[in-house]
Design a protein that fits this description.
This protein is 40% helix and 20% strand. It folds into two domains: 194 residues, Isopropylmalate Dehydrogenase, CATH 3.40.718; 144 residues, Isopropylmalate Dehydrogenase. It has a ten-stranded mixed β-sheet with strand order 2-1-3-12-11-4-5-10-8-9, with helices on both faces. A two-stranded antiparallel sheet has the order 6-7. The chain binds 3-isopropylmalic acid and manganese (II) ion. The site of 3-isopropylmalic acid has 5 residues, from helix 4.
Length: 356
């Protein structure tokens, strides 16, 4: 008998409700693997707030070297009420993104039927787009510093950093994704979001690179919006969006807005992608410490992250089956909010798994 195809997956459940939602995600992954004839070898990494409080360690160099051996990481959530803000975010989440050069943050934004949308009169067919957020540069790159700290003359800088190849590799990913979506019947429109009216150096670099690359993709319709206007249109006319490409900080902000119009943190997932290395998939909602251990948190975002991971690994049919089961589950649960679903965390996971 031929060996069953086995995917090696690094799992970082993390803090708070992270482990609970990752458990449900794994349950669904296993169910879909059974159906489509593949399995997994999960390797757990215990980085997070608890480990930091015990050992003072965030993501270690040794762990990064270990993680490099995996094509994908499945992440729960990082964030602990006992640890000062910034330490775990910088030391684990951002460290992984940077060390593993996960230069794309991919955020699908899709309103499933039955999910309550805060935008009046907007339907699932109106909200179906993807944000491609550059994930290694911008003000996240760590250039800057502080002088005269604590004095009335304190000076602090945090510089928006981009070079041409960082911009180009991100744009290239976005153009190709837009092309792929077009083949699947989507509009084939790519919108650059930036702030060229103020950021006359960095914005201009992005804009010129975008226009130049557009010549190589004549089948793709291109558009440009300033980031402030983009927020406005995302609320008023979300149906105008197909694929958005943007820099790191703007992408961080607009994807939280985008998450709300698809039903909120209960459903929003993202991928930190290095197409030639190790990619990491996560629910974007955070560790929600107050719900820890109560079996009330919504696992659909983590399940969606698992779906994106399988899709990335090339298991398109299995990923589509998860999506169908998630969409069905959305019509059954009362709300996407923690504690208001009408079902427990594990019941929602069961419902998705059973409907594969
Ligand atoms: C995100 C988060 C992170 C970010 C934080 C936790 C560092 O908000 O993934 O969007 O700013 O990128
Ligand atoms: Mn964010």
């Amino acid at each position: 008998m031929a060996d069953v195809k086995t995917y090696k997956i690094a799992v970082m459940p993390g803090d708070g409700t992270g482990p609970e939602v990752v458990n449900e995600g794994k349950k669904v992954l296993v169910a879909v693997g059974k159906k489509y004839g593949f399995k997994y070898e999960f390797t757990e990494f215990d980085f997070g707030g608890e480990r930091y409080l015990k050992t003072g360690e965030t993501l270690t160099e040794a762990a990064i070297e270990e993680l490099r051996k995996f094509k994908v990481i499945y992440l729960g959530a990082i964030g602990h009420p006992g640890v000062a803000p910034g330490i775990l975010e910088l030391g684990i989440l951002l460290k992984a993104r940077f060390a593993l050069d996960q230069y794309i943050n991919l955020r699908p934004v899709k309103l499933y039927p039955g999910v309550e949308c805060p935008l009046k009169d907007k339907k699932p067919e109106d909200i179906d787009f993807v944000v491609v957020r550059e994930n290694t540069g911008c003000v996240y790159a760590g250039h800057g510093g502080v002088t005269r700290k604590g004095s009335p003359y304190e000076v602090a800088t945090q510089v928006m950093v981009y070079d041409r190849q960082m911009v180009d590799r991100c744009l290239e990913y976005a153009f190709k994704l837009t092309q792929e979506r077009k083949k699947a019947g989507k509009p084939g429109k790519l919108t650059l979001v930036h702030k060229t009216n103020v950021l006359t150096f960095v914005g201009d670099l992005w804009f010129r690179a975008f226009m130049e690359m557009a010549k190589r993709y004549p089948d793709i319709q291109t558009d440009y919006n300033h980031v402030d206007a983009s927020c406005m249109w995302m609320v008023k006319n979300p149906e105008w969006n197909d694929v958005i490409v943007t820099s790191n900080m703007f992408g961080d902000i607009i994807t939280d807005l985008a998450a709300m119009i698809q039903g909120g943190m209960g459903i929003a997932a993202g991928g930190n992608i290095n197409p030639n290395g190790t990619s990491m998939f996560e629910p974007i909602g955070g560790s929600a410490p107050k719900y820890t251990g109560l079996n009330v948190i919504n696992p659909l975002a983590a399940i969606e992250a698992g779906r994106m991971m399988l899709d990335y690994l090339g298991e398109k049919v299995a990923a589509a089956a998860i999506q169908k089961a998630v969409a069905y589950t959305c019509t059954k649960i009362k709300s996407l909010s923690a504690g208001k679903m009408g079902y427990s965390t594990s019941q929602v996971g069961d419902m998705v798994a059973e409907n594969i």
